[in-house]
């Protein structure tokens, strides 16, 4: 079990935002395995948290690689040939980053007079804008049907409604045809440009960007932060939505996982078997990410409990995931109170 360090949110550095590119857009109100041929290959020397390849000594990441977005985010990768070839999975924060971001969270809670105070409340309804990014009007080009989006919202509500106070309301689907943004390249200038052009709402508004993705990734998300910037939101592989083709990750749990980061959760295997772990008391310690559905797996044998392979914040297959814990629910609410509550 992890030692409790007070629940809170994580903050991200402000992203550099480029000018929006022309796009064709249509809006409707009713409504992790191999990358594709246009997918960029990620370098193998990526920083665990910021994806910083080939940083020149003496320069900040933004100075050394102005083409890359250096906002802290979390990503979920698909197992496959790239992983076998040694592709670094850009999903994890370092222990120092976790503690620094936690410190900033606690400051935010203190400023709002909420430090150390448990809070119960009615359902928090999160408005959701889904941006469907495609290269053309075909399914192969990313043009997924509205029915998959509405099914994804249903999956989010079922997952979060079981133990948390969060509910999700689809405000609209925003269809964007722009080959320059497809596929979405992780932490690229094009991603930054896309979000700057499309993001709407305040910190409380969940913007989900759906498309084919780079680097064998299923999705990524930004953490809560003290000031809104255009990078805020969640990016999801289109075919991971319910009914998609990305077996065994096609039941909608990638979005559940990434929204967990957006609402302040770490991976269950954050910090491995150390005392701090994922800063959640009731998730058993886990040394590394789970793949498939390895029942009975126990990678931290000196700590109580088997690995939480059924938790949405692990890397198990969708059919294996089905739960958040009460303390994860509390942590998400604290993150909401600190930074996202309007």
Automatic annotation (TrEMBL):
Q: Which CDD domains match?
A: ZnMc_pappalysin_like (cd04275)
MF terms (GO), sorted A to Z: metallopeptidase activity
The leader peptide range reads 1-26
Q: Which domain of life is it from?
A: Bacteria
The Peptidase M43 pregnancy-associated plasma-A domain, residue ranges? 206-334
Q: Which InterPro entries does UniProt cross-reference here?
A: MetalloPept_cat_dom_sf, Peptidase_M43
Q: Where is this region: Disordered?
A: 20-67
- UniProt keyword annotations, A-Z: Disulfide bond, Hydrolase, Metal-binding, Metalloprotease, Protease, Signal, Zinc
Protein family membership: Belongs to the peptidase M43B family.
| Record's protein name | Zinc metalloprotease
Biological source species? Phytohabitans kaempferiae
């Amino acid at each position: 079990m992890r030692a409790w360090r007070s629940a809170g949110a994580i903050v991200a550095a402000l992203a550099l935002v480029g000018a929006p590119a022309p796009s064709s857009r249509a809006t409707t109100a009713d409504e992790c395995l191999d990358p594709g041929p246009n997918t960029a290959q990620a370098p193998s020397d990526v920083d665990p948290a910021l994806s910083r390849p080939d940083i020149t000594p003496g320069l900040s990441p933004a100075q050394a690689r102005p083409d890359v977005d250096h906002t802290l985010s979390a990503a979920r990768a698909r197992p496959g040939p790239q992983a076998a070839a040694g592709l670094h999975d850009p999903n994890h924060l370092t222990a120092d980053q976790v503690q620094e971001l936690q410190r900033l969270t606690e400051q935010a809670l203190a400023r709002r007079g909420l430090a150390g105070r448990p809070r119960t409340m009615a359902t928090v309804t999160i408005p959701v804008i889904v941006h469907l990014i495609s290269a053309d009007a075909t399914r192969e080009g990313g043009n997924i049907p509205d029915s998959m989006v509405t099914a994804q919202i249903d999956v989010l509500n079922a997952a979060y409604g079981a133990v948390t106070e969060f509910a999700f309301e689809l405000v609209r689907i925003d269809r964007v045809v722009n080959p320059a943004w497809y596929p979405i390249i992780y932490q690229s200038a094009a991603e930054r440009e896309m979000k700057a052009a499309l993001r709407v709402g305040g910190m409380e508004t969940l913007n989900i960007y759906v498309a084919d993705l780079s680097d064998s990734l299923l999705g990524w998300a930004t953490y809560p932060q003290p000031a809104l910037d255009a990078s805020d939101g969640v990016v999801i592989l289109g075919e991971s939505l319910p009914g998609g083709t990305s077996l065994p990750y096609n039941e909608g749990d990638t979005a559940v996982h990434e929204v967990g980061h957006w609402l302040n959760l770490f991976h269950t295997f954050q910090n491995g078997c150390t005392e701090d772990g994922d800063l959640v008391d009731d998730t058993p310690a886990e040394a590394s990410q789970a793949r498939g559905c390895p029942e009975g797996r126990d990678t931290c044998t000196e700590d109580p409990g088997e690995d939480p392979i059924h938790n949405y914040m692990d890397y198990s297959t969708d059919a294996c995931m089905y739960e958040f814990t009460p303390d994860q629910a509390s942590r998400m609410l604290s993150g909401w109170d600190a930074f996202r509550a309007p």
